């Protein structure tokens, strides 16, 4: 890992070294000491703009300050995140993003949190700008990307396990109920934090659109519990990130078995608003 990172730093435009890093990050956890650098390289963050960050935080409270401080108090509150990252650090980064033109909506706080856990404030700020660009449909005012992701979960589950999909449908357990918080936070809202960081190694390497497939993989792993439970809703609500390596392996397996068109929709939905609109209109009747 170390040598690949050195090679990529010295040859930032090298697809060969970037692909090597991606392969390593899919197959194995990134060591804590290398995670900050590896994530920035995988996100293709070209510059840590410290002066831009300082200029933004010097503007003090943003127009969404009250909303931000309401959300930061409960950001990853059940995990050890708050022992490492102080609330005022998260507030500063979120305010700086708002001043930079990122219109804050609930959920951005959870997206920024894993970055800030691994990076300095200026690094997390610059990395957040890039990640929000790559996942921009998720944080539009109507969260259309998250709703489109729910529609894609339904499509992938139908192809992967039609029996399980029909069972959940008959129980009126919808993708919105199953997956909304997982999809919106790219699993950052699901403890434990150590598992989230490993899953984000995978997302950094394979693309954050893979959260759609991860939800289906998680359902498959818990399939027997869901089908045999008197209360499948309780099973779904209590699913834990217990063995993230198995979850990643199952996600890769499912994705490899999908047809080209569905892979294309999954790949586009994080940034293509028209793609999301079509998916949402088809599944939800265009209520957004």
Topology, pairings included?
Elements lengths: L1 H9 L4 H13 L4 H12 L6 H8 L7 H8 L8 H4 L2 H13 L8 H11 L2 H14 L9 H17 L1 H9 L4 H11 L7 H14 L4 H11 L1 H6 L3 H6 L6 H13 L3 H9 L4 H12 L4
Please give a structural write-up.
With 288 residues, the protein is an all-alpha fold. The protein has 3 domains: 1-43, no CATH class; 50-134, Helicase, Ruva Protein, domain 3 (Orthogonal Bundle), CATH 1.10.8; 144-284, Cyclin A, domain 1. It has helices at 2-10, 15-27, 32-43, 50-57, 65-72, 81-84, 87-99, 108-118, 121-134, 144-160, 162-170, 175-185, 193-206, 211-221, 223-228, 232-237, 244-256, 260-268, 273-284. Helix 14 crosses helix 17 (244-256). The longest helix is centred in the middle third of the chain and has 17 residues, at 144-160. The radius of gyration is 19 Å and the shape is globular. It starts with a helix and ends with a helix. The model has no long low-confidence stretch (mean pLDDT 92).
Termini, distance in Å? Answer: 44 Å
Quote the beta fraction: under 5%
CATH architecture type of the largest domain: Orthogonal Bundle
Give the class from helix and strand content and strand pairing. mainly alpha
Reported for the largest beta sheet, the result is: none
Average pLDDT, rounded to a whole number, is: 92
Number of domains: 3
Pfam family, one: RabGAP-TBC
Protein name: TBC domain-containing protein
InterPro entries: Rab-GAP-TBC_dom (IPR000195), Rab-GAP_TBC_sf (IPR035969)
Domain Rab-GAP TBC: 29-207
Relevant terms:
288 residues; mainly alpha; Helicase, Ruva Protein, domain 3; Cyclin A, domain 1; 3 domains; 69% helix; GTPase activator activity; Rab-GAP_TBC_sf; Rab-GAP-TBC_dom
């Amino acid at each position: 890992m170390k040598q690949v990172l050195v090679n990529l730093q010295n040859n930032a435009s090298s697809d060969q070294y970037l692909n090597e890093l991606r392969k390593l990050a899919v197959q194995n956890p990134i060591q804590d000491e290398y995670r900050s650098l590896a994530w920035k390289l995988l996100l293709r963050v070209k510059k840590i703009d410290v002066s831009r960050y300082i200029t933004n935080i010097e503007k003090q409270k943003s127009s969404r300050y009250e909303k931000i401080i309401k959300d930061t108090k409960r950001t990853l509150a059940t995990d050890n995140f708050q022992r490492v990252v102080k609330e005022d650090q998260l507030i500063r980064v979120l305010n700086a993003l708002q001043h930079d033109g990122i219109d804050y909506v609930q959920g951005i706080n959870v997206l920024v949190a894993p970055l800030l856990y691994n990076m300095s404030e200026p690094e997390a700020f610059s990395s957040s700008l890039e990640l929000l660009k790559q996942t921009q449909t998720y944080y539009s005012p109507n969260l259309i990307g998250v709703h489109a992701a729910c529609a894609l979960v339904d499509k992938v589950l139908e192809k992967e396990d039609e029996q399980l999909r029909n069972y959940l449908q008959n129980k009126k357990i919808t993708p919105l109920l199953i997956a909304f918080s997982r999809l919106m936070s790219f699993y950052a809202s699901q403890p434990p934090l150590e598992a989230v960081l490993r899953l984000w190694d995978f997302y950094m390497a394979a693309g954050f659109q893979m959260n759609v497939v991860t939800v289906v993989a998680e359902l498959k792993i818990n399939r027997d519990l869901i089908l045999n439970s008197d209360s499948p809703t309780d099973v779904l609500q209590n699913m834990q990130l217990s063995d993230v390596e198995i979850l990643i392996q199952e996600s890769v397996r499912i994705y490899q078995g999908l047809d080209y068109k569905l892979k294309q929709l999954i790949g586009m939905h994080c940034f293509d608003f028209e793609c999301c609109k079509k998916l949402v209109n088809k599944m939800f009747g265009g209520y957004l």
